[in-house]
Amino acid sequence: MELNRRDFLKASAGTAGLALIQPLNLGKTASSSNGSSPQSELAMLVDVSKCVSCWYCYAACKQINNLPETVKPDTENPPPLAPDIWSTLYTTKINDRWRSRKQACMHCTDAACVKVCPTGALHYNELGFVQYDKLKCSGCGYCTQYCPFGVPKLESDPVSGAGSMDKCIFCISLVTEGKPTACAAACPVGAIKFGNCSELRTEGKQRVETLQQTNDQANFYGDSDVLGGLHVMYVLDESPEVYGLPKDPELPAPAVVHDIIQWVGIGAVAAIVAGFSLNYLVARMRMGLDERRKSYARRISDRKANR
Amino acid sequence: MQEELAIEKRTVERFKIRTVLFHWTHTIAFLALIVTGLILFVPWFGAAAAGGATRVIHRIFAVLFVVLPVLYFPLNIKESIHFVKESLIGYDLSDLGWMMAAPDYYFGGDENKMPPQGHANTGQKMWQTVCILTYVLFLITGAIMWFLRGSVSPAVFQWSMLIHSVAFLLAFIMLFVHVYLGVLHPRMNESLKSMLDGKISPHYAKHHYGNWYDEISEGETKH
Questions:
Q1: Scanning every residue of chain B, which has its alpha carbon at the shortest distance from the alpha carbon of A135?
Q2: Alpha helix segments (H runs only) across chain B
Q3: What is the pTM of this model?
Q4: CB distance A136–B51 less than 8 Å?
Q5: What is the mean pLDDT of chain A?
Q6: Pairing relation of β-strands A88-94 and A97-103?
Q7: Is residue B170 within 8 angstroms of chain A, CB to CB?
Q8: Complex ipTM, two decimals?
Q9: Nearest residue on chain B to A258, judged by CA atoms?
Q10: Which residue in the set A262, A280, A285 is minimally distant from B42, CB to CB?
Q11: Closest Cα partner for B193 from B203, B183, B185, B184?
């Protein structure tokens, strides 16, 4: 299997060749999908135990989002997420076998990136996925540093800092049309599933139970208690760290402290303005009109004297 | 009486003109940094940063903000060294006396109850200390966020951002105090003038900076 897959990858002359296969596959899966109602929460479930590292999801993402092909994906040397790579594979060698986890934005319900984005460029859309408005992005890069998964990517000019971030957009135009995401549609082995969030959660947990019969490392990642619930959940056959995932992802502490500081600052300025107003009135009153007149007269005489 | 009148007519040099120029150019840089930084700090103003033009302005004035003191320092080396020393190790028990007397004094109480001060009073020294401290903090954390994003760990970036904000808050609050006392407070009626032409009246010097006034008067009689 391993060899066949590799050979196929080579034979298909890289991702350009893979991309050609996608539209057929995409259409097929889209029409066969159950077409979840727009009100229901949608999500993806990635089962790494089924993944065969074929890179179809990578190619489909590139194609559907019109991202340039810059590198040939390679399981032993996978391209990391980048402004033009919104979905890739995180690979690791376990017991002499290469294993992969599809890696892209988790579309957290309580996303750190949305929280720290100063301009509101990053936001939740009506389906609950994390979207961004490129024109609003200031290129500050906070999202790239606060995301617990290191997903948003930004390449900026070293001097001016010009640039804007990019990441997976959950194929929003496809999904709003009722179609599945490109990566889910492209997966030939059903390792990436698209559908109703709670159904996928149940399905994922059942799959983990099955795997646990032979592998006590199997676990479900991205349950509703993780950052409000991830819209990309995982069935893992090893601990999260093995697949490059933080064990307990959470909003970084400085973001929480920063919130407090903001309000301390706003409060402090208000208190100071009030305090100074009071001080001004009291000081003038206590210093007395007479004294002020005297000092005014003195200043006038000083000025005259200086001339 | 004759002598007193003669003293009244003189002016005392409080700041050199180069110091005045440095003060105001640094002020412009800091104000530009405040405006372009505040929009990231206060959640409601964030939209103003969209597109990133304000970051470019922030970086230009950040360079000015950092470079100006470095250029000024050797131009006025004696005073500059004194300024740094005074701000960092220039505190002693007498500052406690100022702090005890200050609330009544600034609320218009009897100015004779205020212990005489040197060239800078305790409050001004505290502002100087905040300026130096936050300058260093802004420089280090700003450089990390500008040049080392992605090279340092996210945690280092996150804490740099937080420290940058804390430094800002500290400097901003003290700036409010500084501007209020320098420009608006009824008792500090020659403060702004001293930062415009560098001079104050001997009367003001005597009443606000008694020890310093004695020092320079002594020097004069010696010469």
A1: B51
A2: 2-9, 17-41, 53-75, 77-89, 94-106, 122-147, 154-179, 191-194, 202-208, 210-222
A3: 0.84
A4: yes
A5: 86
A6: antiparallel
A7: no
A8: 0.84
A9: B162
A10: A262
A11: B183
